Amino acid sequence: MLLEIEDGIAWVTLNRPEKRNAINPGIVYAMREIMAQVETDDRCKVMVLTGAGEAFCAGMDLKEYFRETDNDPVERARLVRANGDWQWRHLRVFSKPTIAMVNGWCFGGAFTPLISCDLAIASQDAVFGLSEINWGIIPAGVVSRAVAAVVREREAMYYIMTGDKFDGRRAAEIGLVNEAVPAEQLRERTVELARKLMDKNPTVLKQAKIAHRIASEMSWEQGADYLMAKSDQSLLHDAERGRDTGMSQFLDEKSFRPGLGAYRRDTSL
Ligand code: ACO
Question: Strands 179-181, 119-123: parallel, antiparallel or unpaired by DSSP?
Fold first, then answer.
């Protein structure tokens, strides 16, 4: 695993290029540590998850994650728990914005962290696949559930049942990633998006993304109650007093329009 911090971005790189960054126990346990580190390091404003070499991630390691624990239910259970901890329990509600930068191969179990990141940008020629059916298993862990959260139903069923691969452009069409760009623009576009997120009020951004995650699985009544409480919590925690500032700049100073851009932040607060 690699962690590089540069201009507010924590670049977290799955780093087993010789194994196409397949997720083995080493990656599972290292990711839990790295995410805890990124979350508490003030230099990190946005986390980008990517892969070394020609792969984003070739899914779970068939040898080290599956075969070598097939006869060790205790270690398997420990591993499944730890893997779920980083891939979705923590990542879906990570307190900082997250972007998956899909640079190449992306299969099976890799869909969970991909979908758990808030945003995703792929290289147009990255290759994706729900390849589980091709080797006799179902998209488990929590892959099918994750896919259902972002991909349209017909396409989800098609790729789950056929195991066909598809490229970055198609991934954008079906909602799996936000956009696909030529490979040579992938990093630049990711940095551009990260910068846009860094300009926002971080407290409100954190509350907004977590609120959406949680509310999307509630009834409307529960959602309304939860979101109003969350909104109050956001105001309480916002040291920048963004709401007051924004309102005053719009209504009193008439110096900006919320529909056209963000208020001028006072980051000294
Ligand atoms: N688990 C274990 N080892 C893997 C995995 C994996 N998921 N993916 C690649 N590797 C290993 C290969 O066994 C090979 O090891 P070796 O050098 O010791 O022989 C090495 O990585 C390179 O892989 P190649 O297949 O030689 O690389 P190539 O570039 O030709 O193909 C590709 C890349 C298409 C990603 C291919 O490796 C592949 O199909 N991998 C499996 C993808 C997959 O279906 N993942 C599992 C999804 S299901 C799940 O995650 C629950």
Answer: parallel
Tell me which of 62, 67, 132, 160 to substitute to probe ligand 1's pocket, judged by most ligand atoms within 8 Å of the beta carbon.
62
Q: How far is the CA of 218 from the centre of ligand 1 (A)?
A: 38
Percent of the chain at pLDDT > 70 equals 99
Q: Same domain for 39 and 130?
A: yes
DSSP 8-state secondary structure symbol assigned to residue 151: S
At residue 250, the 3 state secondary structure works out as helix
Closest protein CA for atom 39 of ligand 1: 58
pLDDT in tens, 67-98: 999 999 999 999 999 999 999 999 999 999 99
State if pTM tops 0.85: yes
The residue segments making up the domain with residue 143 are 2-198
Q: Which run of H or of E encompasses 234?
A: helix 220-237
For the chain, give the mean pLDDT: 96
Looking at residue 156, its pLDDT comes to 98
DSSP class of residue 23?
B
Ligand 1 binding pocket mutation candidate from 14, 15, 16, 20 (most atoms within 8 A of CB): 20
Same domain, 169 and 240: no
